[in-house]
Every structure is written in C-alpha cells, then in structure tokens.
Structures
1.
Amino acid sequence: MKTQTIGDLSRWVGQTVELQGWVMARRSSKDLVFLVMRDGSGLCQCVADRSTLGDAMYQEAEDLTQESAFWCRGEVVADPRQIGGHEVRLSEIRTLHLSKDFPITPKEHGVDFLMDHRHLWLRSKRQWAIMRIRNTLIMAIHGFFQDRGFVQMDAPIFTDNACEGTSTLFATDFYGHPAYLSQSGQLYGEAMAMAMGKIYTFGPTFRAEKSKTRRHLSEFWMIEPEMAFCDLKQNMDLIEEFLRSVVGAVLEKNRLELELIERPIEPLQKVTQAFERIPYEEAVQIIRGERLVNGQSALDVLRDDLAQVRLSIEETRAEISDREAKLAQPGLKKGEIGHHQAQLQAARQRLDQAEEQVRNLPQWIESAANFQAGNDFGGSDETVLTRLFETPIMVFNWPHEIKAFYMKRDENDPRWAKGVDVLAPEGYGEIVGGGERETNLEWLVDKIHEHQLPMEAFEWYLDLRRYGSVPHSGFGLGLERLVAWVCKLPHVRETIPFPRMYGRIAP
Ligand code: 4AD
Ligand code: MG
C-alpha cells in the first residue's frame, strides 16, 4: 500500500492508511499519546494507544518531539471536532528522524526571531495556511487570464530603463554596463501586447525604496496584463472582474486555511458587489471630510474609531491584570495555566495593536484634513479614503504630474492622466496600479524629457507609437499586497516564502 496524504483523508474514512510527516504538537495522558501530524497537505490528530501499539511502539510515540519526522499506519475516523475533520487511530508507528530542541516553540516569539528562523517558521500552521492561499491566488490568476485568451509572456529582469521612476532602482553590473533590476515588466508588456493582442506577465519585480512600512518589499511578484485596443473604462471593468474572480477562488478553496488564520470571510464575500469608481478630485474631497459617503464623513468615522479604540484599551488592560492575578494563584492545573497564558498573550497582542492605533489615528486624521489637492495619497490617506467602503474602490483620473511618464493624458482635460489605482478595504490601500498608455508620440517624448529619463533607452518603446499605434491599457497587481489583504495580515513579510526588504536579506 502506498502512503496517503492528510489532505485526502476524507476518501479513506473507515479504512487503514499510511501517513508520513512531522510532529506539530504532542500531548499525552495516561496510556494515550496525541500527535498532531502535518505532512504539508494538511493536519490531523494521530492517537497512539498503549493497548493497541504495545509498550515498545507506544514508547516511540511518547518520545517523539516537536518537528520529529515519523511514519504511521492507522484507521481513519471522521471527527468534525478535530483539526481537518479526522482522527487516525494508530496501529503502527515508526520514528524517521528525532528532532532536538526545535527553536520555535509554542510560546510567544518576537517578529525578528521568527524572521531569522523563516526557514523553520514556514512550517507553522499559520504560515502553511497563508502559503496555500497564496498558491490558490497564483493559480486563479493564471486561470482567469488563460480562460480569456491572454498569452502569458515573460519580461526581462535585467533592464536599461527606469519604468516607475529613477528613485527606486537597484543598480547592477551587466558585463561592464550599468543595468537595473526590473521595477515592472510593463514597457515590455506593451511591446508584447502589440504582437499578441492580450498578454500578461507574472514575475519578480524590484523596488529599492528604503521603506520599512508594512506594505513594502524590495522583491515582490507582480502580475501585469496588457491589452491592445483597450481604454481606461474597459481596463477598470477587467480589474473588477479579475479581483472578484481570484478572491472568489480563495473563498471556494481555502475555507480551512481562512479559519486557521482567523480571517473573517464576510468582508471578502463583499467583492461580489460593484466596486465604487471615484475620480481623484472627489477622492480628495472624501479624504478631507468635505464629501460625504452615504451621509458619513470619513474623518468623523475615524474620530469615532479613535474613541472606540481608547475604550477597548481600558478593557484589555483590565483583562490583562485579571489574567495575571489568576495565574498568580497557587494550585492551578496545567491546562488552566496554558489557557490563561494563551488568553494573556492574545490580550497583550490586542493591546499593542490598539496602542499603535491610538498613536496613529490622530495623525492620520490631521494629515487627511489638511490634504493638498495635487499630491499623491500616502498610506494613511488611503486608509481614510477606504474607511467608508466595504469593497475595493478604484480611484481614476490622476493629476498627470504625479503619475508615471507613460500614462495617457486626457485629451479633453490634459490636467488628468488616465491612471487607476485600486485600494483594498479594511485599511489595506493600494493593491493595483494601472491605466491607459500614452499613444501621442510628441506628448510621450515631452514626458520622457520632463522625467529626465535617457531618451536612448526608450527609443524602442517609442517605436510602438510609430508602427501601428493603438489605444492600449493594462495594470499591475502586487501579489503580496493581495495576499496580505485576503489573509488580513498586519505586514507583507508573511505573504512570501522568503521576504526581501529594507534591512533583511537572510535567510
Ligand atoms: O503602482 P505600481 O508602481 O505600477 C506599476 O509598476 C505599473 N507599471 C503597473 C502596470 O500598469 N503594468 O505597482 C503596481 C503594484 C502596486 O499597486 C502594488 O500592489 C505593487 O505593485 N507594489 C509593491 N508591492 C510590494 N512592495 C513594493 N515595494 C511595491 N511597489 C508596488
Ligand atoms: Mg502605484
């Protein structure tokens, strides 16, 4: 018999299976050992009973430590109370490798410690769930475009041009010539779209901003569709359908994972509703509290949030002292101690987050109220703007001065560039940036000068406007920002197996 995987156990209820994997957790009571096995495909509880296994094998189960590898055989019992919905009653067990002192224990660890142990941290339940959701998104993205006749094509990573501005380039040496790691595959995407009609790239991109915010990575994966004969409106229609489809795939395939990371699903289910499309000018009014959405001012709502958070801080502090007092009592059972400690840890985390909000909110409100029209939105402005919406929103028609050189100017009102940013709700902000591309050769040349970019590096790009130039559009989705929102993570560092960001290149 070949070994089965935990992910497939529902097909084996009532039958005997062989599994191989690692010990995620172990506890024992009199003559019973409970092992939570993980094998990459899922988690399940394996029960070792002394009377079935005999003393020698039972001892083997007893001796297994966290992250030891083992093989086992046993009967699958359906049990909805158990993680994954099954339990395996062991008839045989064999140790494959005994792990000693796994550094990541169930106790609390700081983020730096976990990041230093990212190669091991990936094994945790939470990281496992996030990576599986990431995988679903990747496959759903390919599926979406493939179903619609897009051709997947790859843009180069070494480039000689700055697509998204010169300030965030990683320079490298290409046989003695300066070259940069690509910030975006878009310019090549445009050339490929003129050859193939509709294409998308899916590859790593690099940004050198020395930014330590929760949404910046130095290396991230971007999906960039580009379509010939497509204007801004059609582009926005596609983005909306696209996000609805890929988030829908996660809701369909990853219920267990979403539950493991305690991600409420109602906000994600809202993607079936229409996404609000707001011109930049109106977005500015909302940010300043001058324009109401459904009768509400974004700033008033944030002020209410602040009052709420202050209240919750007092409650959480009271809960913490209460738990500390309980833990100080003599004669507590092991289970009770564990319970109080877990609750205490959760309460302390909530307190940290709430205290951070109390520090941030007044600044955010202040800077939103004083927002200057013409500026780009900062992270906090996006949070203010999206506060009153439950679906992602699309902000379009941006001041051309703050957008990339390739954006199409509105012929009727050249103040505006036909760009669109998609901002995710729940405080996440920008996940997609895109727009219609300039087709007017003269305007494009002017912009290249205005941005002080070297014309030679863009000659080939200008050819696209010389030979069969047509309206075309596209967008870029940052995969990690999408994963962060879908999983409701506080930081993008957990959305990619091995994050590269300012101050971190190992492991
Ligand atoms: O808005 P951006 O800079 O747009 C472009 O690069 C266009 N060329 C895309 C296009 O039209 N083909 O980046 C697009 C998206 C952002 O909305 C964000 O989701 C993500 O890429 N992104 C980052 N993600 C993580 N870390 C960073 N430093 C990111 N910079 C951008
Ligand atoms: Mg952008």
2.
Amino acid sequence: MSITYNDRIKAWKLDTPNTSYILGVVDEKYLAHIYFGARVEDDNLSYLLRPEEIVPPSIKPEEQLGFMDTVQLEYPCQGIGDFRECCLALKGEDGQTGCNLIYKGYEIINGKGRIKGLPTCFGDNAQTLVIKMTDEISALEVSLSFTVFEDCDAVIRSAKIQNTGKRAFYLERAMSACLDFELENCEIITECGAWAREHIIERTKLNHAAVCAESIRGEEGHDAMPFMAVVSGNADQNSGEVYATQLVYAGNFLAKVKKNPHDQIRMVIGINPETFTWKLESGQSFRTPEAILVYSAYGLGHMTRTFHDLFRNHLIRQDWVRKERPILINNWEATYFDFDKDKLLEIGREAKKRGIELQVLDDGWFGYNRNQPSGGLGDWYVNEAKLEGGLKGLTDELDKMGMKFGLWFEPEMICEDTDLYKKHPEWVVHQKGRIPARARDQWLLDYSNPEVREYIFESMAGIVRSIPVVYIKWDMNRAISDVGSDYLPADRQGEIWHRHVLGVYEIQERLTEEFPYLLIENCSSGGARFDAGMLYYSPQIWCSDDMDPIERLSIQEGTAMLYPVSTIGSHIAKSPNDISWRSVSFESRAVAAMFGTFGYELDITKLPKEEVEQIPGQIERYKSIRKLILEGNYYRLASYRETKEYDAYMIVSNDKKEAFMVYMQVLSKPNSLSRRVKLQGLDPEMHYDVNGVTYGGDVLMNAGILIQRKKDFEAQFVRLKGKGK
Ligand code: GLA
C-alpha cells in the first residue's frame, strides 16, 4: 500500500520509492502538512508542527492568529489570519470574502483515472487520497487529491471546489497546491527566456522577499516556465535536496515562494489569480489543474529523471509515447511563404531519396492571401493558386513516393483579411468599442464560444478525414491581450483566459480521439507553450525557432531539465543560421539535432553534394539511438551555461547496456590538454566498448574518458556498448 492512514494520530502517509509525504488533522479541524522528504518508516512526525511552540488554539484560543500564520497547511485560505500566500480566495454575491476550511473526511482510491477536458496524470499502479473539507458559511466543499505512483517519486495534487449552497459565489483564486517546508540556505531555480532563447535555467538565493515565476500572456510564454524548485545551496546534478513543482497547465500560471520571518518556506503553484475569476453557481464545481511535487535527496538529476519518467509513464498519450517518431522535413525555413506544389514535391523527392520519412507543409498553404502573416488565419481551406490540385493533389504525389505527410495549423487565431472575419467579426476576443492590439497581424478567436470551437474542430477534422495526414503542427503565435468576449455574460468575463485553455484542450482531445494515429506537435512561436498540459495531447513540442546548435545548448538543457528528451522538437537548419547568423558544420548541426525528435528544416534541394550525401548516415545514426531517446535515462554531464567552454550530456538505456554521449566544444582554450569527462548512469560492473576500446563502467564514471579538443562548434558523438560483466 502506498497510502496509509493512522486513525490514532489522524495522519496519512504517502510513500513513493524514495520519498514520504505526511499530512494530518490538527486541532481536530485543519489539514496540516507535516513532512515531505526522504522516505521514512514512522508516520508519527506531528512533533514537526511544534504544537507547544505555536500556541495552538485548543490551548490558547486568544492566540489563534499566531497559530494560523505559522501552522503548515495543505490548502490555506485567504482572510483568516494566515498572512502567507494562500490557495483559495472567494467572494460572495454580497461582496464579502473569507473562507475557513474544516476537515470532514477522506477516502483512498486505487488507481488514477483521466478527467475529461483536463490533462491529467493517469495509471493503474497508483493510489489517490481524497480529503474533503468544508466551509459552512459559504457552503463550499473542497476535495483535495493526492496521488502517488508505485514507480515514481512524485506526488500529484489538485483541488475540486464545489458550491453546495443555494447562492452563487466567485472564485478569485483556486491554486493547485501549496507546500510548506523548511530548508536552510536555499536557492530558487526557475526558467526564463525570450523568443529564440527559451527555457534558460536561472538560480537565485532565497531571502525573505518573495520570488515568483508567472505568466499573464494566456500561455506560459517565452519568459517563464510553470516550474519552480527550491534547492539546498550546494545542490548539483548528483547531490543536495530539491523541492520542485510543475503545473500541468498551458495557460496563465503563478509559482511563488516566500520565506516568512520564522524561515518557514511556502511554495504555491496554480492558475495565476491575476487573470482569473470563476463564477460558481449552486451545485457547480471547479477543478484546478494538477500540480506535481517532487522531492529529491539526490540533486537535480534525480528530479529531472523523475519528471521524465512521470511524463512518459503517466501523462503523455500512451499511443505515441514510446513509438518511434518519423524523421521529418519541414519547409518553413526552406521556403517561408514562397512555395508551390512543384517546389514541395522537389523537396519531397530529394528528402525521400535520402531516407526522410515525413514531409511537413508549414504556414502559407491556406486562405486566399497567406503570402505574408497578415491574411488567412481562420480560412482553413487550401489556396489552389499555390497548390494546384489542392492538398489531395499533393498528398497523392507524396503517397506515390512513399512519403508521409504533415500539416501546419494555427487554429486559435484569426486575421482581418479573411472570409471568416467578414462573416464573424464577433468571434474575435476584444473589449467592446476597442480594436484589439495586433500581434503578427492577427487576433485571438473567442474559444469560450462553443460555435467557434466547433468551426475550428470541423475545419481541421474535415481535412484530416479527407487526406492521409498523419502529423499536425499546432501553432500559436501571439499572446492573449484585450480580453473580452461577446459570448460570455458580464459576470463571466474573468473566465476567458481559462476557458481559452480549456477550448484548446477540448479540440486537441477531440482530434486525438477521432484520429488516434495522429501525431500532434504543439508549438508557439518556437517554445512559448512547452508544458506538461500540452504534453498530454502531443508527445512532442517545438522547442525554439532558434536552431543554431550553440544557442540550442542552453535552450535544450533547460527544456530537458523538465521534459523528456523524446518530446523536444529539434531540427537541422541552414548555415549561416537565419536567426543567429552563426555558421556551424553540417555534422555538428546534425549531432545537436539528435537531442530530441530529429528532422530537417532547410532546402534540401540547395544543399551542396557533400552535405546531402551525409544525410543517410545521419539518419542511420539517429535511428540507432531512437529507442534510447524514447526510453533511456538522461544525464547532464556539463552545462555550457556554467562552463562557458563546453557542454555534454548522455543517455543510458534502462538495462545500462547501451548509451551515448554528446560533447560540444564551444570556445576553445589555447594551450590546453584533452578534456577529462566523467560519465554517469552506467553499471559500474559492466564493461563498455567506447570507440573500439574497452573500459569498466566504474572507470568511465570515476576516472572518465578523455575527449580530444576539436575546433570551436565541433560536436562529438560517442557510442557506448555494454559487453557484459
Ligand atoms: C512560428 C513557428 C515556426 C513556423 C512559423 C510559421 O513562428 O514557431 O516554426 O511554423 O510560426 O509562421
């Protein structure tokens, strides 16, 4: 049993392979958080709540405020004397706020099912503890869920909030999880970035000022990730304590941490309250997105591998998660908007000849005027002026070649220069009387309106039904602003942001249900919507428009710290690179693109002969590690962010018999010896073949191998084959 209840002390203990999470009822009322850390056998750790020190109200009712402001809580409410960040805030129709949740009961459920309409972790080898609390004055019931899987060091949390009374109220804040704990001399890790330089790891000391990662852009955006970790100051890849959280959500989020004057730390994560209100009528309920909590006593590497395992085993659509992804060629950087059927077929023929498996037609194939960003979005029918014979004509030809086909959509958007806008100007998200700000010359469709969702779903599904398309790139190229809906009533306007996200989920869920074979790759101006919410629907996400292999070192390091390498959309682009202007050899670009799904995004028909002839070898090499990428364990050996000189990572199979390492020399240091790199994750007793030389696993991990320095920007690929013990 992973979850046990001790009635004598009124405490629950949730065990994962290496951690324990303990919570209990204090003062016969409040749901307190007692412990989260390395696995312990005893469940009676309530002394950690310091009942003698924090003047519990049962002893000194006159000091209840002091108690509320220091007791560790699982789901703190606003306005009742806990002055730390809260999880729940509501307002009645009379304008009054305040809520006081009192424990009512619990149940333990075997397994973890999916929830329609929301991305959630799932699996049979799990147990879920559901704890019910109520606030009598507002007639509100909160059910907190805590799930643990037998094979993973993570706790999955969420809250369901139900109005059991007769009058409506407004949720003004409904966070997914709170974690109260203590850790001395700690630091905060977050990820930040911008377009073309996403997911960069940042680390800062935690003093008493709050630190937060957040978004109000409608998605997490390029500049923050729905993730936060509090780590001991000395934490590195292999040692130190880590308390990490991620939100399974593709919209506005807040992850916030603060240390109170007693050095107690509170970390909360959930939908960003700044852009959220939700009206709950009598009998209605609201479910928060899931939050993941991970504790690692073995540094950041274990946190990363826990997230990877959780997502691969319990989140990503199982159909695709372990299936080999096709090696694709995408025409965006090859042609931008300037293509016709002949050009695409020319690319397809050359690509097929070299071993590429799937051709993706990117932006520009639809509407009457999509030759620049200002037109077309919303008119999801083919432009026959560009594609004679339509998509059918193109796919018939590709089919004959044996080339699979994929197609780009940007389904959440509308351009003014479209038939759709002429027919339905009211479908644009806008504030009455104001023209919404344009971004990339486009506006947002009002996904709170079911008619809009139906139109978009049918436009996409109609195409997928009529041609053999096996892959869809779902793009999203602007942040959400000027929020207002002609469809929703006045008292529900604050719901637009969350309803938009639910609308995206709904359409992607319908697509995956009707076309279970479909491989969806999510994308948002590169990597602005790379999160666990989207991973539920799409097993791979475009990581960044920046395909320069040197830039990609930090982008991919940050992405892989949170998400499996197999989910990272990664392509070889032209050189010099269109975004960074840097020139890097074809071979190094190919090695860099193996960190993920591997594909080409250049005009293959214009490549010099010596480069195009390298493609079959690159593909063969990638295919030889494709399974490792899908299933193996990832180890970060060195980070260019930190070394300023080189970067290295490796992936090891579960049975430790197969592995590969990639080393990238970025800036050479004159007059230096070969570099000694210590490997990780191998079997110390196994012998390995490395470039024809046999080493013991213990030697490779403790003494390391010597990497000869090459020119700047030269990547090296090292294969390891276990030879037995
Ligand atoms: C976004 C994507 C690119 C490409 C373009 C097309 O920027 O990130 O990969 O699809 O849109 O407009």
3.
Amino acid sequence: MATIRLGDKAPDFTADSSMGSINLYNYLGDSWGILFSHPADFTPVCTTELGTAAKFKDEFDKRNVKMLALSVDGSDSHREWIKDINEVQHTTVNFPIIADEERKVSDLYDMIHPKADNNFTVRSVFIIAPDKTVKLTLTYPASTGRNFYELLRVVDSLQLTAYHKVATPANWEHGQDVVVSPSIPTNEAKELFTKGVEEIKPYLRMTPDPTV
Ligand code: BEZ
C-alpha cells in the first residue's frame, strides 16, 4: 500500500465487479477514467451517490471518461444493491462496481484510512488520464456525499489545461475566462491567445476559454 500522488501511474489491477471480471487498463483503453470508492453496499449516502453517478454517465461519456465504482462487498451483493439503487434513485446503474471483499484494490489505492474506519473505504476519487497517470485525487469522509457537478467541472479543467497553456481560476466553469499559464510572458500570450489577454497584474493574466 502506498499513497498515490498526482503524476503517478495508476496501479493496474484485475478484479471481479458487478459486470464480471475487469482489468483496469483494458477497461480504460485510450479513455480518461474516474475511479471512486464507496464505504459499503446498502448504505444511504452511497445509494444516493451511485444513483447520481448513473444520471451523470452521459456527461462523463461526452468527455470520454469511463466510470468505475468500488465497494468492499462482493459482486452478488453489488447486483442486489443496484436493484435498490435503480428503484429508489429512478435510474439505471450502467457502469461497473468493483467487488473488493479482500481489500486488494482498496489497499493498492490506499482507500482504507484506519483512523477513520478500519473496515470500510473512505470516499476516494481518482481521475486517470489516457496515459494512465493520476491527474486528481480526492478524499471525502463517509459522512459526506460527493458533488458530481464538481467532478465534471474538474474533468473539464483537466482536459482544457492538458491541451492549452492555461489554468482555471476559482469556481471556474466551462466557457468562462481562464488564467494564462504563469510560464508564458505576456507578449507571447498576446500572440498565442488571439481572443485577447487582459493583464490585471503581471502574474495574473486572463483570456477567454480558448475552446469556445
Ligand atoms: C453511507 O453511505 O450512508 C455511509 C456509509 C458509511 C458510514 C456512514 C454513511
């Protein structure tokens, strides 16, 4: 078990899931990926999270992001729980949930934080780029359900900043002005960003989102 840091290669694994055996790298192919853990099956917050995640799948698909959930129960339990999730959340869970009864994937990704709980995973999120490097890690406690709008927002930022020399400011959303990368001098930025560059301070230059 090792802490996974930004820029690390996402550890590969093969595991059982609600949709059968899954190998992470084969499942992701050339896509982006989001791997998120849940403390346990048949728990209330997790039920709302997975129903919400299913409703967001079209948005992740549009961004070429494959979804993969995990909880420390077995695949038979997952399939039974999915029936409940679909019933109460009025949705269809349409991505795999990894079965991790032996905690192999949880240990590989350091998803069990013993001082929080010795038996269950915390709510971890890993966003993985097509080259399999980890681009985002998030850790929430069991008592706080995650915000899936925020996960989409960070995917938008990661995908934008992977291809353009910009960064995204606080509370940024797709289409809003972005920050010019600090490494680019303002005179170069003015040539690069043809929609204009506003120099608020020498270190704070804004430009319209180059993708809209
Ligand atoms: C939940 O998903 O509701 C939950 C799971 C473990 C502890 C607390 C809440």
